[in-house]
Structure formats: C-alpha cells, structure tokens
Amino acid sequence: MPLISDTPHWQQLKIESQQFEKRNLQQLFKCDPHRFSNYSLELDNILFDYSKNHLTESSLSALLRLADATDLENHIDALFSGATVNASENRPALHTALRQNDPQPLIIEGVNLREEILHARQQMATICEKLHTGNWLGATGEPIKDLVHIGIGGSHLGPECVLTALSHPKERKPRVHFVSTVDGEQLQQTLNQLDPNRTLIVLASKSFGTQETLVNGTHAKNWLQRSLPAESGIANHLIAVTANKQAALDFGIPEEQILSFWSWVGGRYSVWSAVGLPIAAALGYGTFEQFLTGAARMDQHFRTAPLDSNMPVLMALIGIWYIDFFGARSHAILPYDWRLRLFPEAIQQCDMESNGKSVSSDGLSLPYATGPVIWGKSAIDAQHAFYQHLHQGNPWTPCDLIACAQPVFPEHNHDILFANFVAQSRALMLGRNSEQVARDLAKHTVSDAQRRLLISAKVCPGNRPSNSLLLSTLSAETVGMLLALYEHKIFVQGHIWGINSFDQMGVELGKEIAHEVSAQLKHAEPGKQLDSSSHGLISKYLENTRKS
Ligand code: F6P
Questions:
Q1: Residue 424: what pLDDT?
Q2: Of these residues, 353, 477, 487, 489, which one is catalytic?
C-alpha cells in the first residue's frame, strides 16, 4: 500500500486547504442559508452538526474521495467480520461482536465466538441479578453492599465513565468504587469506609499481569482475609474479569467467578464485555443491555450508511482535515453535561492509545501527523479554566461540544447550560475584531496607550471550527451510541493514516524500566549505573524515605 500522503487525493486536499486562507466560517454561513441542514446529520438521539467547520462541497468531496481511495468500506467490513485488523498481534478486534444481537454464528479459527459471548452475557446477567437484588451473600451471610472495581486503563475508564453518565452514586445498588492507581492512598481510602463482610472485589484485567491491578488486588485480598472468619473463606468476595483464567485461579478466585475477557477485545474497547460489570451490577443488567443496543445501533449505521452520511466517517475526516492540512495538533472534547464529565478521559485513552503512533501497520515511518492530543473536561468548568486558550491561544484546537437537550434539573439552569453550548461554538467562529473592541472601548474613558493595549488583548481571531453534538436524552442507549461513535471515528482515522489502531506497544517500555528502577531501589548502590538525573532522584527519594 502506498502511503496515503503519496496519493493524488492527499495532494488535492493540500490545494483545497489553501482556499481557506481567503475564506472564513462566517462567510460560509452567509453564502449558504441552508448550511446547518446541509452540514448536519441526525441518527436517533444524536444530532451531529458539523456546519461550523472549514468545509465546502468541494473540500468535503475531496475528503470523501480520500477515504474511498483507502478502500474504507471493505475495511469496515473486515473489522466486523473478524479479519485480522490487528496485524502486529495477529488477531481481530471484535468489540463490536460483544454488542450485536445477531443469531448467526461468528466463526473465528473454528470457534463460534457468538456462543461464547452469549454464554458470558448469561453468566454476567446471573451475577448482576444476584448483586443488584441483594442475593449475593458474603462469607458471613450478609448481602453485598459495596463493589470495589480494581482495574486500570481500559479496564477502568470505560466503566466509570458510563456509570457516571447514567447514575448518581445513590442510585447504585450495590455501591461502586473504582481503584486504579498503585498509589496506596486510593485503595486505602476506599477500603477504610467499607465493611469487608459486605464488600465484593472485582479484579478486571485482560492480562491479569498488570502490576497496579495485582498489587491492589493482593492488598484487598489481604484486607478480606484479615477481617473475615478464616473458616468461611473469602471466595464469595472475589470476582475476576480476565483473558488469563489460570492466573486468576492461581490468585484464588473460584472458576465460576471468572468472567471471560477475550484476547480479541482491546482493553480500551472492553466496556462492552464483563469489564462493564459495575454498570450492569449497579444499574441492572437490563440497563447494560440498552447500552449495548445503543452501540449496536451505531455499528449498524457505521456499517451501512454511505460514507457521505456516515457520522463516524465524517467526524474522522474532519479530524484528519485539521491535523494534516491545517496543522492542528490537539482536539478538545467538551461535554456541556456534568454527567459526561469523564467522557473526555475515556476517549483520550481510546484515541491516544489507538492512534498515538508514527509507524504504519506495514512498518513504515509516517511523514505526516497522526493521532492528536485529546483533552477536555466538563465544559462549563473548562470555560473558567482553559477556554482562554481555545479563544486566543496559539496553536488553536478544534473542538467537539456535546450537550443533552432534555433537562434533568430545573429548566432555568438547563437553559443557561444550553445557551453556553451554543454561545461558545459561535464565539469560536465569530471572534472579535479590533473595530468591535474599539467601539466597546469608546464607551469608557481610557488613555490612548491603554486603549491600544486593550484592543490587542481583547481581539479574538475567531474562525475556529467546532463540531456540536446534541443528544436528545442521556439514556443508556444514547451513551452506547456516543461511545461507539468515537470508537469508529478512531478506527477510520487509524485506517486512513495506515496505522494499526489495536496494539499499544509504546506503553511497554515505561513498564519495563519501572521494573528496573524498582530493582535499583534495593540495590547496594541504588541508581549508580543510571543517568545522573535518575540517580539524583533515587538518592533524594531514599534520603527522604530513610528519614521518615
Ligand atoms: O498499559 C496499557 C494497557 O495495556 C491498556 O491498554 C489496558 O487497558 C490497561 O493497560 C490494562 O491492562 P489489563 O486489562 O491487562 O490489566
């Protein structure tokens, strides 16, 4: 496969992008009174408005031709049908199969994965039913009241994001606590408030070899052992979700409490599996099924809609447009809904671990920019934190603004929230020029020197693009659709860039060196063979720990 940047389509896009040196977003709206309807798309509960982007018919067509030239449609089919899309690890990426209700067998290497998935769902539903209804009893016969989910990365971010989006902590039964980091503070603070007789520990780890999860799991297990009567054992207090059954058995988890997590599900795509247990347990398995149904709906759209009206494809192309033809290096995700406050973090992992790569899946060094830095937070908070940068900073950042139409709290508040959602995308687009600032300043008495300073400080360049996503309600189905939308966007971008979006080899190096440094801490001359910075830091650390 030639590099995408060597194709005429890429060169054409370079030419197209030059047109925008003379055009701005406001002019695009003036030229086309129907721009909103021409550049927006609705799928069930999700309205995707991409009209405030540097797009014209001809640039959008050129982007679509680029996608077409990569044989995107066949690649989408390959993803769904279980082809080896993860070449470096020689396996498919079948997270979509986890949410399908297709009765047809899905045979991969002679195994009917559909049967395995249905069996795992059934197992999960049974456990959730018992937990949710208070019929799962601990060693001393008391019903489980608290579930501690220990996992990190994809084994944590998805479930916490979705649970936060769908419920207030008080609505969860059992209550759910997440522990991810190896910083003992997090686990200790969590366990301190819990009754071991009524606590269930869930260890979610595909590999069952992740240091953070195993260290926390071992502490939690010791806590149970110390607190519960020896004769009753702690088996009822432990569940594992893993692809490494043997390691979970060795850890002491009963076989029937080990839920499957398969090698063909990437960690950051795993919330659809039993990794989503905290969601299903706390809100009921039915809610979890609705979440799966929403994702399946987005899958169906992604698989069948023509490229020019395909939401994930359009989102992906708009992203590539800015990254490779306008020099954008980051992308902000800004939910105008507090319930979605963890969404930017979940997408940050999904996107940056998938596409933060500079080598093609064929091993070629890529001469163009790929996955951007993804950042963001609850947008109203962000308005008082980093929107200054969005409006006047250099470099500039394309954004996704996400809001939900249906209020769950007083309408007055919700109107304010919604007004901000619309206002900010408008402000990014309109900006404020020096004449406007000067007119405003004319109402005040200021010296000429001060006036000049104020004018340059207050000018906002504008012409900054954004996508707006307006959700009708924040139901389990909508959240499933939204998450699947971003997963597919990431997949399309990775495909067009020629990247394998399903491995994450870069994270291994740091883990290996952390083991070496840990060994150094016990060494006779700690860190002496390392670089002087690492040596200096180790020496200072040991000096302090010896003192305490
Ligand atoms: O360090 C990266 C990573 O492998 C993620 O991809 C994954 O979600 C996380 O670690 C946790 O891995 P595991 O589920 O195997 O514990």
A1: 98
A2: 353
270 C-alpha vs ligand 1 centroid, how far in Å?
Answer: 10
Q: Is the CB of 217 under 6 A from ligand 1?
A: no
> Can 435 be counted among the known catalytic residues?
no
| pLDDT in the model for residue 232 | 84
95-289 has the same fold as 4-69+305-407+465-497: yes
CA dihedral angle for residue 404, residue 409, residue 415, residue 420, rounded to 10 degrees: -60
Q: Is 345 in the pocket of ligand 1 (CB under 6 A)?
A: no
Give the pair of three-digit tokens for residue 408: 């769950």
Residue with tokens 């306008």: 326
Going 295 to 297 to 299 to 302, the CA torsion angle's sign is negative
Of 149, 150, 155, which is best to mutate to test ligand 1, by the most ligand atoms within 8 angstroms of its C-beta? Answer: 155
Ligand 1 lined by 344 (C-beta under 6 Å): no
Domain spanning 95-289: which superfamily? Glucose-6-phosphate isomerase like protein; domain 1 (3.40.50.10490)
- The pLDDT of residue 514 is 95
Q: How far is CA 161 from CA 96, 278, 479, in A?
A: 19, 11, 10
Active site residue 353: yes
Q: Catalytic residue among 14, 30, 119, 511, which?
A: 511
| pLDDT score of 407 | 83
CA distance 390 to 235: 51
Q: Please, what are the averages of pLDDT over each run of 10 residues along the chain (548 residues)?
A: 93 96 94 98 98 98 98 98 96 97 89 94 96 94 97 98 95 96 96 97 97 97 95 94 98 96 96 98 97 98 98 98 97 97 98 98 96 98 98 97 88 91 98 95 92 96 98 97 98 98 96 95 92 96 82
- Rounded to whole angstroms, the Cα distance separating 389 from 399 reads 12
- Could you say which of 3.40.50.150, 3.40.50.10540, 3.40.50.10490, 3.40.50.970 is the CATH number of the domain covering 4-69+305-407+465-497? 3.40.50.10490
Output the DSSP codes for 400-469: EEEEESS-SS-HHHHHHHHHHHHHHHHHHHH-B-HHHHHHHHTTS---HHHHHHHHHHH-B-----EEEE
Report whether residue 353 contacts ligand 1, using a CB cutoff of 6 Å: yes
Cβ atoms of 338 and 378 closer than 8 Å: yes
Distance from the alpha carbon of residue 27 to the mean position of ligand 1, in angstroms = 46
Q: How high is the pLDDT of residue 547?
A: 62
Q: Residue 102 has what pLDDT?
A: 87
Quick one: which atom of ligand 1 is closest to the CA of 243? 15
CA dist., res. 177 & res. 156, Å (int):
11
547 among known catalytic residues:
no
User: Mapped to the 3 state alphabet, what secondary structure does 265-282 carry?
Assistant: CCHHHCCCCHHHHHHHHH
pLDDT at residue 45 in the model? 96
The pLDDT of residue 411 is 73
Q: What residue ranges do the domains of the chain occupy?
A: 4-69+305-407+465-497, 95-289, 507-547
Angle formed at CA 223 by CA 218 and CA 227, multiple of 5 degrees: 150
pLDDT value of position 509:
96
Side-chain-side CA neighbours of 31 within 13 Å: the count stands at 10
